[in-house]
């Protein structure tokens, strides 16, 4: 497959970037002045350490950055780096299952980012007017069990969500229409889309 080679190249660059970001890049034999942690030939700068611990604190609101948590985080980073280095020494980073897992994660993350981007872009195009809200209320008044003013925010949200979903469906339909797609008919009895 042509796309497979391109994916492998992209995967290589993604992995390289991942290892560099996580402190897995090789450093010089002598520590640079801002080296916070060195594990064999891998260094983590003070700035990288500070960025990583801030990210950790951001993702865990219960974490407070103190002398104790900083030391625990240093120990965590050293342990993590030692495990990464051992896995690489054992060539686990080249095993097909690992590469496939990273490829799948990369694809899922890329799709999620695209969908977030497209959702934000399309939300700007969604505008629900008062007549649409009133018409929905009139059709569903008995189910809602609220007067118009109480139900209006929920109705507006329902209508915006539906309009956004329709725009997303139209976008994905257009992507498919513009693509060259061939499917082997023997796959589950399907025909070309």
Topology (elements, then pairings):
Layout: H1 2-21, E1 35-39, E2 42-45, H2 46-59, H3 67-89, H4 96-123, H5 130-144, H6 148-178
Antiparallel strand pairs: 1-2
Helix pairs in contact: 1-4, 4-6, 5-6
What does it look like?
68% of the residues lie in helices and 5% in strands. The protein has 193 residues and is mainly alpha-helical. It has two domains: 2-99, no CATH class; 120-178. It has a two-stranded antiparallel sheet. Strand 1 (35-39) and strand 2 form a beta hairpin. Helix 1 (2-21) crosses helix 4, helix 4 (96-123) packs across helix 6 and helix 5 packs across helix 6. The chain is flat.
Give the gist of this structure.
The protein has six helices and two strands.
N-to-C series of helices and strands:
HEEHHHHH
Poorly predicted regions:
8-29
Structural class: mainly alpha
User: Main sheet: which strands, in order across?
Assistant: 1-2
Q: Major sheet, described briefly? A: 2 strands, antiparallel
Report the β-strand fraction as a percent range: under 5%
What is the distance, rounded to the nearest whole angstrom, between the alpha carbons of the first and last residues? Answer: 20 Å
Mean pLDDT: 84
Number of domains: 2
Radius of gyration over C-alpha positions, nearest whole angstrom: 26 Å
Shape: flat
> How many helices does DSSP assign?
6
Number of strands: 2
**Helical percentage:** 55-70%
Tag the structure with descriptive keywords.
193 residues; two-stranded antiparallel ribbon
């Amino acid at each position: 497959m042509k796309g497979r080679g391109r994916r492998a190249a992209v995967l290589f660059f993604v992995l390289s970037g991942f290892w560099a970001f996580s402190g897995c890049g090789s450093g010089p034999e002598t520590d640079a002045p801002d080296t916070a942690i060195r594990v064999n030939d891998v260094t983590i700068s003070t700035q990288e350490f500070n960025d990583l611990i801030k990210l950790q604190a951001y993702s865990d609101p219960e974490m407070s950055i103190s002398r104790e948590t900083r030391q625990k985080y240093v120990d965590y980073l050293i342990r993590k780096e030692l495990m990464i280095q051992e896995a690489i020494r054992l060539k686990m980073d080249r095993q097909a299952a690992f590469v496939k897992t990273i490829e799948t994660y990369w694809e899922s993350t890329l799709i999620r980012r695209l969908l977030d981007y497209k959702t934000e872009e399309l939300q700007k195009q969604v505008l629900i007017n008062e007549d649409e809200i009133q018409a929905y209320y009139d059709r569903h008044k008995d189910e809602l069990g609220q007067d118009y003013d109480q139900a209006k925010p929920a109705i507006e949200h329902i209508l915006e969500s539906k309009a956004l979903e329709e725009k997303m469906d139209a976008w994905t339909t257009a992507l498919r229409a513009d693509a060259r797609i061939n499917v082997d008919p023997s796959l589950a009895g399907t025909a070309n889309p």
